[in-house]
Amino acid sequence: MFMAGMVGLGALLASGAAQAQEVTLRLHQFLPPQANVPQFVIDPWIERVEEAAGGKLKIEHFPAMQLGGKPPELIDQVIDGAVDIAWTVNGFTPGRFPRPEVFELPFMMTNAEAASRAYWELFEKEMKDTDYANLHMLGAWVHGPGVLHVNKPVETMDDMANVKFRTPSRMIGFLLEELNAAPIGMPITSIPEALSKGVIDGAVVPWEVTTALKIPEMVKNHTEFAEGNAFYTVTFTLSMNKAKYESLPDDIKKAIDDNSGMEFSAMGGKIQASYDAPAREKAVEMGNNIITISPEETKKWREAAQPVYERWAADMEAKGIDGKALIEEAQALIAKYTEQQGNGSAEPSTDEAGMDKPAEGETAPAQ
């Protein structure tokens, strides 16, 4: 009788748990679980959403393409409903999301947090019913300033001639061509092998990723630009299958909505960029040569980048998009949010937003 009662109680408890957890969603992305974004952006977001849903929602996180396919297929996986949520890079499918490319233009970004806020605002105004019409967007952000990591010192634009660089996006590819360098596209995880075999002479990536890829061990020269002058950045999205979102109960939708959008996007950019400094310090400790282009010299690089703006605007015009207007809007929004940061009125701190940030000297594998 006692055992029968215990079995009955167990079944009742299991039934109650099943009833409490009404929805399970699958989140798919391309990086390993210990990488910065999965560990410090995505997992905390999942925890907050699940908590807000009061136990009715479970989000299963599948890192490193565990559900199959290749990174460029992530966006179609979420649109088609093969997965419910995906974190991906717009540049994995070049040209498919034209409007967000405005934030990837050279020297467009000031810092990741301000640019991520600008990205979300412009998404709501210009991209929600165009580029991302088939998705329910949860977050949109950028990484920290891109840096040149190369096997020879790059102190002037002339030093770029004929240097083979791994390029992450169409925009930086356009810029490298203007600087007489040779852009070579490849997955970020292929950089170490490509460097070791001489396929490339260097890579353009943010500091954040260099530790995980052991780039400072392979090249000893790093060229960055004066603060507020980002050579480039890359745009990311966390999105959900639209039909799946619309099918959810209102309380679960609210749990997702309350933890997504502008503030989440700003924190995503801020946290990802926060890993730049400890990674840079590692290169300093190794005695590598870090070159910072002065504000005066940066003006020359900015001037050299102008044809990239013209080329992109013309490309947008051919698609029926007013590229020049988008550039002006993006610049104005970035300036607005950068100024708000300077006035101390941009947004809550990382801790206030309930998201983790690196401890002093801490690093983690990166994208």
From TrEMBL:
This is C4-dicarboxylate ABC transporter. GO terms for biological process: transmembrane transport. Residues 338-348 have a biased composition (Polar residues). The lineage of its organism: Bacteria, Pseudomonadati, Pseudomonadota, Alphaproteobacteria, Hyphomicrobiales. It comes from Notoacmeibacter marinus. Residues 338-367 are annotated as: Disordered. Residues 1-20 form the signal peptide. It holds the Pfam family DctP. Keywords: Signal.
